[in-house]
Amino acid sequence: MELYPEEIKEYNRLTKGMEFTFMALTMDFLTHCENVIFGYEEPELPYFCFHLYSDKGLKEIYEKLTHTLEYVYSEVDPKYNNLRNNLSNLLILLREPKARIQDKKYQQSNNDYWYKLVKNEDRLIDHSAFKKYAK
User: Fold this and answer.
1) What's the pTM?
2) Which of 48, 72, 73, 88 has the most crowded CB, counting CB atoms within 10 A?
């Protein structure tokens, strides 16, 4: 659900400056997250969540983002129903990799997705964070 102007103000108030704290997760990823908060679907976001959660170097920052957004969710005034619902939807997506860490089908589906992207993209194949998918 799209946000009303007063919900956007509330979101901006609660998240001011956060993009700098979490820049290591890439602006593309943060934009996908923000799009979900603003009520848009991001079909590729679950794959990015899997990748970041399973990345040794970024997992801690990813978890910190998730905890921070849980706090933001808890601080949203209940009258901002769309904002609360959209944050809740994002938190479900962000928590999925942790909840399904033992699910082999889930892991394989994500690995297949990244393999298809990486195998034809030289700049990704050469990037250390994506080499694991090229095998």
Assistant:
1) 0.92
2) 48
SS in 3 state form for the chain?
CCCCHHHHHHHHHHHCCHHHHCHHHCHHHHHHHHHHHCCCCCCCHHHHHHHHHHCCCCHHHHHHHHHHHHHHHHHCCCCCHHHHHHHHHHHHHHHHHHHCCCCHHHHHHHHHHHHHHHCCCHHHHCCCCCHHHCC
Q: What is the sign of the dihedral through the CA atoms of 38, 43, 44 and 50?
A: positive
